[in-house]
Specification:
Number of strands: 0
Helix content: over 70%
Shape: globular
C-alpha cells in the first residue's frame, strides 16, 4: 500500500483533468442517473489503472450500464444499515410514548435511551464498516456483478484477509470523503467538482488495495 497516498495527486497527471472532473461533476446533477454514471466512471478508471494508464476516462454519460450494479449493491447495504437503525429508533420512540401515557417509569426511560444510543451506534458503526469494506465490495461487483457484491461472507473474508490493507484503504476513503466536503466551501457548487475528484481518488485506492491484496495472497 506504499503508493496509496498518490490518490491525492494522480488525477492531475491527466493534462485534461480539470475539464473531465468538471464535466463528471455536472453530470452528478442528474438525479440517480448521475450517481450511477459516476460510479461507472470510477470503475472505468480502475480498469485504466490496471492497464497502466494513469489518465482519467473520458467524461461523458456512457458509464450508466457499468455503474448500475455497484449502485444497486451500495443501495442495498446502506438501506440495511438504515433499516436496522430505524427499527431501533422506532422502538425507542414507542417506549417513550408508553412512558408518557403512564405515570412515569425510570425503567422505560432508561430502556428508551438505551435504544436511542443503540440506534445511533448501529448506524455509525455500520457506515464505518461499509467504508472499510468498500474496496472489497467494488472489486466483487466489478468481477462478479450484483450477486458477488451481495455475498457478505466473501466481502468480509476479502476485507479481513489483509487487515492492514483494509485499514489503510478505509482511512484513505475517509480522507476522500473529506475532500468531497471541501466543495461546500466553494459556494456550494464546488462540491460537484470535489465529488468527482473523490471518485477518481477512490479508483486509485481500490486499485492499490487490489494490488496489495494480490501480493499478500501470492496472486498476480
Amino acid at each position: 500500500m506504499e503508493r496509496v497516498t498518490e490518490a491525492f495527486v494522480w488525477p492531475s497527471r491527466d493534462p485534461d483533468w480539470l475539464r473531465k472532473l468538471a464535466i463528471i461533476g455536472l453530470t452528478l446533477l442528474i438525479p440517480i442517473a448521475g450517481a450511477i454514471n459516476g460510479l461507472g466512471w470510477m470503475l472505468e478508471a480502475i480498469d485504466r489503472l490496471r492497464a497502466g494508464e494513469e489518465r482519467l476516462p473520458a467524461a461523458n454519460l456512457s458509464y450508466l450500464g457499468r455503474g448500475l450494479g455497484l449502485f444497486v449493491v451500495s443501495l442495498v447495504y446502506i438501506a440495511a444499515v438504515l433499516v436496522v437503525g430505524g427499527v431501533l429508533y422506532a422502538l425507542a420512540l414507542t417506549t417513550l410514548s408508553a412512558q408518557g401515557r403512564d405515570t412515569g417509569s425510570p425503567f422505560l426511560v432508561a430502556t428508551a435511551l438505551a435504544l436511542l444510543l443503540l440506534a445511533f451506534s448501529v448506524v455509525s458503526a455500520g457506515s464505518l464498516a461499509l467504508t472499510f469494506a468498500t474496496p472489497a465490495i467494488v472489486l466483487a461487483v466489478a468481477q462478479g456483478g450484483i450477486g458477488a457484491g451481495l455475498r457478505v461472507d466473501q466481502i468480509v473474508g476479502a476485507s479481513l484477509r489483509s487487515p492492514l490493507n483494509t485499514l489503510i484503504a478505509g482511512l484513505m476513503l475517509i480522507a476522500a470523503s473529506f475532500i468531497e466536503g471541501l466543495g461546500i466551501a466553494l459556494c456550494g457548487v464546488g462540491i460537484l467538482f470535489t465529488i468527482a475528484y473523490a471518485l477518481a481518488m477512490q479508483a486509485w485506492i481500490v486499485r492499490i488495495f487490489e494490488m496489495s491484496s494480490s501480493s499478500t495472497t501470492g496472486h498476480d
